[in-house]
Amino acid sequence: MRIGIDLGGTKIEAIALADDGKALLRRRVPTPAGDYRAILDAVASLVAATEKELGRDGSIGIACPGAISATTGLIKNSNTTVLIGKPLDRDLATRLGQPVRLENDANCFTLSEAVDGAGTHGRVVFGVILGTGVGGGIVIDRQLVTGRNRVAGEWGHNPLPWPRPDEFPGAQCYCGKSGCIETFLSGSGIARDYCARTGKRLAAEQIVEAAGTGDGEAQKSLEAFRDRLARGLAAVVNMLDPDVIVIGGGLSNIMPLYTALPALVARHAFSDTIDTPIVRAAHGDSSGVRGAAWLWPTASAV
After folding, report:
1. What's the pTM value of the predicted model, to 2 decimals?
2. Which residues pair with 64 in a beta bridge?
């Protein structure tokens, strides 16, 4: 049995998978705000409750925002800032009394979709999370590619490609730079664009709904979002040329994206023909936690 834990900013989710990928159990608890020790306790309690309910032990994989620094072994680049500078994997292994494997949540999302999701037919899979932030991951032959500095796939912290005059220098990003892809393609990026057009402050979900009911300015914001997404993905295609791009996160539910994106990407990518499939995640918001479970290649690897 594989146990996956998705450590999010607002919730911690656990899943138990059988060897064939069937979900045996799924549980969620709120994430303790700003309390590192309480987060460790919550994860340990979820694992213990899962193993008790199912009557067996399992391997443990963790998906979390950020990554483990190759230099220090501590968490870096996490928007759950209480984790930054902490030896999260080692602390959890000590608390649980067994090894754990920990990876960035976007990497886990991509692994899940490559193993038994929307990307199973592709050898090279690029996974995209569009939501509160903009994440990415790379899987080749069902193996994660994390890179020498453990930042492979972090396309959201590159500049928006081919920026237009009104897009430069762009909004300030939490990473300290301006004009990152994340500042345009996150939920707050759509909200910022709509506010600039109308002076009204709506959440991304409300803007999508307004566009569907004929709000012309909301439709323009979504058109701008789609065009910027296409430019960002064209740069990925130029660098990686994946067999498939899988999109997840809350903004993956904007269904008109999937019909328009391929042609827009082809307009910018460096090739005479671009036929890269761009598809919606098969497992929805379960992909991250499922990918965490799949960090162990076999359930007997503990």
Report:
1. 0.92
2. 104
